[in-house]
Design a protein that fits this description.
Shape: globular
Structural class: alpha/beta
Distance between the termini: 38 Å
Radius of gyration: 21 Å
Number of strands: 14
Length: 487
């Protein structure tokens, strides 16, 4: 988001990453790669399933899984430390606001900052000093200066909030330097990159996490606890989305540092931002913790919205007139799980409509639907009339009971996410989600594109856990830990 941009209290980190370490590379691509041909072959990844329809002929069949190079990271705790020392890469819209939350969490020090825009880095450094912490090291030399931040011996955790095409390389650099890393959505854009992050996490014994703040939304966490308590009966289906009209922001020259987000609409036809919808529903269904996503089938509408908006709002000669948009205005995907459940995902940022993540869960005893929130479960409700979700406040997660009015944007979920993450690092706990969740929640990016190109043919979703999904284990539905001395 823009440094002073309004935040939808019900949204996720939608328009994040305006302050970019790699924004210059995004700017360089603008003139030379307009059109549908940019990176379509490469973005399929090095895995045949992502690019070849024939590979998906039997999406539910066993898929070849690369040999594990290390040991599983499922259930592996952080080391624990009295103070968590954080380095932040990317200090624009998202990173520039999230630094406030890191500074607000007890036991956290921000020791290093990186952004190619010096003014943004210096403004963030001033926040650190104002919060009473020592002045952080600042890296603004060039697009690769983040490597120097990652190499520091006094950084425990690296937070990445940059444009999407830089996420993989930055997460890779952090883990190779011995740092745990959390990355804004999506964690990578290619299937082969997702596998590489899994392998790197296992080899380096460093956690690589998709920072999915919507998993910490108040409604999402209440539904999660109700689902695990059996109030919805046997779970059957869920739905999630990122339906958010971003046309004005994507064409606003002052909102993003360059047109990097709009350019992705010239490259891929699928769901560019599945995590906000998929992450919470995956938690409800215990994906990677007793069930797993096995295939995805996607269809998409014509790509008309951005071109029409440009025609109505952009002056002749604007660089955007060189762009050809191919991303479907609305992408609809169906994800099938090993237990036969179905998850519907939607993505639409280029047509007019109210904001919605859908956020729905259904089972044999009832259903919850969000936007607006409403519930119907037996025996509480009868006569086909929706009930009041507020009546179930007793099921709120302990994080929301402990932090009833959290600071920060997006209705407080950002702070809840940062607080819980830093708590896990500081106390030496197992993180609520891990690299396998990051890869699974992001896999719809390349696979929905491949499915749409293959006329809706199902694409196998890899088992990134290499069989660990069959074991039940805790996730975001956590128990409140006792504060204990560390080290």
């Amino acid at each position: 988001m823009n440094d002073a941009a309004p935040q939808n209290p019900g949204s996720g980190q939608d328009d994040d990453n305006g302050g970019s370490v790699s924004r210059r590379s995004a700017l360089r691509t603008t003139a030379g790669v307009a059109g549908a041909g940019l990176g379509l072959t490469a973005l399929g990844g090095g895995t045949a399933a992502a690019t070849q329809p024939a590979a998906a002929a039997s999406a539910g069949s066993a898929q070849a899984v690369p040999e594990r190079q290390g040991r599983t990271m499922a259930g592996v705790p952080f080391e624990g430390r009295s103070t968590v020392r954080v380095g932040i890469i990317g200090l624009g819209n998202r990173g520039g606001s999230m630094i406030d939350l890191f500074l607000a969490v007890p036991g956290v020090r921000v020791v290093a900052l990186c952004d190619t825009v010096r003014d943004k880095a210096q403004a963030a450094a001033a926040k650190v000093v104002k919060a009473g912490q020592p002045a952080p090291a600042v890296y603004t030399k060039d697009e690769h200066d983040y490597e120097q931040l990652c190499a520091r011996g006094d950084v425990d955790f690296v937070y990445v909030a940059t444009p999407w095409d830089s996420h993989f390389e930055m997460a890779k650099a952090a883990m190779l330097a011995g740092k745990h890393v959390g990355v804004e959505c999506p964690v990578a854009m290619r299937l082969d990159e997702l596998w590489k992050l899994v392998d790197l996490s296992e080899r380096t014994r460093r956690h690589c996490m998709q920072l999915e703040n919507c998993a910490y939304g108040k409604n999402e966490m209440r539904v999660l606890r109700m689902a695990h308590a059996g109030l919805f009966g046997d779970l059957l289906h869920g739905a999630g989305a990122y339906n958010h009209d971003l046309r004005g922001l994507m064409f606003d020259p002052d909102y993003y540092e360059g047109p990097w987000r709009r350019l992705w609409h010239t490259r891929l036809r699928g769901d560019l931002y599945p995590n906000h919808g998929f992450g919470p529903v995956a938690n409800y269904l215990d994906i990677n913790r007793g069930d797993r996503a096995v295939s995805i089938t996607s269809v998409g509408t014509p790509a008309l919205g951005l071109a029409q908006y440009r025609e109505e709002h952009m002056p002749p000669g604007d660089p955007s007139w060189k762009e050809t948009y191919v991303n479907s205005d609305r992408t609809i995907s169906l994800v099938r799980t090993a237990k036969g459940r179905v998850v519907r995902l939607e993505h639409d940022v280029s047509t007019p409509h109210p904001y919605s993540r859908i956020n729905s869960l259904g089972g044999t005893r009832g259903v919850f639907e969000d936007y607006p929130e409403r519930i119907y479960i037996e025996p509480d409700h009868t006569n086909d009339e929706w009930g009041d979700f507020a009546a179930y406040a007793e099921w709120d997660h302990w994080l929301w009971k402990e932090h009833a009015n959290p600071p920060g944007g997006h209705g407080g979920m950002d702070y809840i996410m940062v607080f819980r993450l830093m708590q896990c690092v500081r106390l030496g706990l197992v993180p609520d989600f891990d690299v396998y969740d990051a890869a699974t929640w992001t896999a719809p990016v390349p696979l929905s594109h491949a499915s749409i190109k293959a006329n809706g043919a199902p694409q196998p979703i890899p088992d990134f856990t290499r069989g660990e999904w069959k074991k039940s284990r805790p996730g975001t539905d956590s128990e409140k830990p006792s504060e204990k001395p560390v080290g």
